[in-house]
Write a structure and sequence with these properties.
By secondary structure, this protein is mainly β. It has two helices and eleven strands, in the order ααβββββββββββ.
Length: 191
């Protein structure tokens, strides 16, 4: 941790935010830093290697030396997509509910008191059902098809526009006969 503070050491010569930050972190320590109070234990984590793209749950079991670990923090994360985190119960189990909408991988991290952190990748695969993901909404305001506006593709005040929501099916089955309803709670908008 000391090396990450090194670039800011020169800025802490004078009384100011950098000096107080560096002195507090160096002399008092990071309040979020977990300190081992015994020899770190190795986590035994059981989880599926993959999960389908759709409304899904991931069940994880955590143990240490064959004994279920209560209150282990289990986090499933994918940058700019999903985040779910919860603590294990007395049986060492936790179920995380997520809704990934693109193929790829998520990172599973498990931590516990006096335990070495566990990290693994969980693959996202096409499931047996459709998994619709929202994409951009196309806005037509160029006068075609009953629209009126300046044609810039942005819904401006006083314009009549046509909206075309774009969806992508990332699931393993086709999505047919789709329908939707457009609603508004804004009294100034007319549908």
């Amino acid at each position: 941790q000391a090396r990450q503070k090194l670039p800011f050491a020169a800025l802490s010569n004078y009384d100011g935010v950098h000096r107080w930050t560096q002195m507090a972190l160096i002399l008092l320590g990071d309040p979020e830093l977990r300190i081992y109070t015994a020899t770190p234990r190795t986590l035994s984590v059981a989880h599926p290697a993959s999960m389908p793209v759709s409304d899904s749950t991931l069940t994880v079991n955590v143990a240490v030396g064959g004994v279920p670990l209560d209150s282990a923090r289990v986090t499933l994360y994918r940058a700019d997509h999903e985040f779910a985190s919860a603590l294990t119960n007395a049986a060492g189990n936790v179920t995380l509910a997520v809704r990934p909408d693109t193929l790829g991988a998520m990172t599973l991290t498990v931590t516990g008191f006096n335990c070495r952190a566990y990290q693994a990748s969980v693959s996202l695969v096409a499931g047996a059902y459709p998994a619709l993901a929202r994409r951009a909404v196309l806005i037509i305001d160029n006068g075609a098809g009953g629209t009126s506006g300046n044609g810039n593709g942005i819904w401006d005040a006083g314009e009549t526009v046509a909206l075309y929501p774009m969806l992508r099916n990332n699931g393993g089955a086709g999505a047919t006969s789709l329908s939707g309803t457009l609603l508004t709670t804004d009294g100034l908008a007319t549908i």
